[in-house]
User: Fold this.
Amino acid sequence: MGETTDLVIEARKLTKIFQDFWGRPKVCAVNEIDLEVRRGELFGLLGPNGSGKSTTIKMILGLLHPTTGLLTVLGQSPRNVAVKSKIGFMPEESYLYKYLTAAEILDFYASLYGLSGNRKKERVSALIAQVGLDAARNRPIGEFSKGMARRVGLAQCLLNDPDLILLDEPTSGLDPLACREVKDILLGLVRRGKTILICSHHLADMQDICDRVAILMNGKVCAEGAVKELLINPGTLRLSLESPSRESLSAILDYIEKETGTRPLVDHTGRTLESVFIETVKQRNSIP
Amino acid sequence: MTNRLRTFVALTGLALSELFRQPATLLLILTNVVCTILVPLAVSHQLGQQTHLAVDSSLAFEFVFGLILAGYAACSTLHNEYLSGTILTIFSKPVGRLMFFLAKFSALAVLIVFFVFCASAASLLAERLTPRNFEFDTLGMRLLGVSLFVALIPAAIVNFRTRRSFVPYSLFFCALMLAGLVLILSTFDLEGHRVAFGSMINWSLVPACLLEGIALLLLAAIAISLSVRLAAPATVAILLVLLFAGLVSDHLTGLLAAVPQAGFVVKMILPDIQGFWPADKLAGGGIITGALIGHAAVYAAAYGTGVLCLGYAAFRNRQF
Assistant:
């Protein structure tokens, strides 16, 4: 993930104020935020409900118009229709036509990108397989679980092989296994040079995959930076050892205590619940 | 096919499939057919009136049901996209708002044309089935009852076997049956004897229904423009007000004779629905001429284009 200065999304003092019927200001959803998303990075927009994440994404898509400030997406105004052929968007809810099957809906969205014939068929089939819906491709979306509908949402977002991918709560409603699969897909896309902006309040997921994050609160950016840097606690260090003998451990601890004046804490490195769950499910599935 | 045309066809196709699978569409079209055929039958039997009752009521039903259908369908295809959130996904793709708006109107126009086709067939059947001198067309009534029932069977079979929606197939088969029934009854008299094709059908109703169809397309343009901001009840209510105000627009302008400017404004704003009302023109054996239809079509195209421009102006800056 080579860092470049190539800006895919640039927002300067971006503000969105919702107005009432008479044009009076009602809510300031986004308040003078500055944002830079670079090519090839996986950027996370974090924040509690109502912090302005979805409003920001909608402005990036040109669905909402900024009240003030500057916003460019891939070097152009987000209201430019042509720029959307390079963008993929997965909304927070699976806003899909429930009476269509997974294959039909992807076929429809592919037509909106101008795909046709065999190219369209191949793209649709490949994406259905990629999101693991081969067996359900001819079932109406209305019969899908939330997680399955999210997979269709992800597939439609990748139809045009976009340069910029905007995801609003992509892992919401997914089981941990599907969640891991989606995260792997996203990491694969970033490896291919795609830029991804994710909105979420699932912090563990964001920590797993994001290069940089911005934390929004009441429409303002409260913190921004590389995930690794934000997570560092500068006052402490962690030393991991692979099963040292009791004697060696005791000697190391004595040495550290002698040098620093404090006795270090010792415990076992833990696994995450996610890794335990995935391992268990995979083991169960492998039993005939 | 260029990319833009492909996108337009995809949007129109989806909007059409959505409109034709709405149970309300089936209900409104079938109710119009049933009312058009049965109401004059009952009324003329009671009052001993002749066929002009059938003509008047069938044309009135076409107007009212067509208007409700236009209002409901416009909101179901455009306004419901906001409510369901699907418009977010559509506009995240390279789809222009003008194209989307026109695709929705095109789909609505196709639905209205389909409705006018069914309503025209029903009007022809109503005129034929209305008792003359208290003599019922038993052959026609039997065939009608059987065919409407039979039309729903293949749709049910398709639904049972393929799990595809019942509504679009039942609409298709009903339209087919109505057209078939008109053709069959065109070749038989009331006793079931073969006659010269078409001699038992009042074909002058076809241009009358066509004239009303043009008015319904104009109302559909108003409906789709209103649905940019309003939900179905408000849209249908405004359409009804416009229909009745349009029908009495001459009277309204007469009332405002003292203030010519106000009369001019009213005449410009209100659609001239009176010009599309064919019953008066058919009374006393009159006919709807091609010139009249042409004049009405030009007026509807001009008025409809103006309304669509206003609707698009409201839609262009709509935020989601």
Q: What stands out?
A: Residues 95-161 of chain A form one domain. Chain A has a mean pLDDT of 89. Chain A has three domains: 1-74+163-232, 95-161, 246-286.
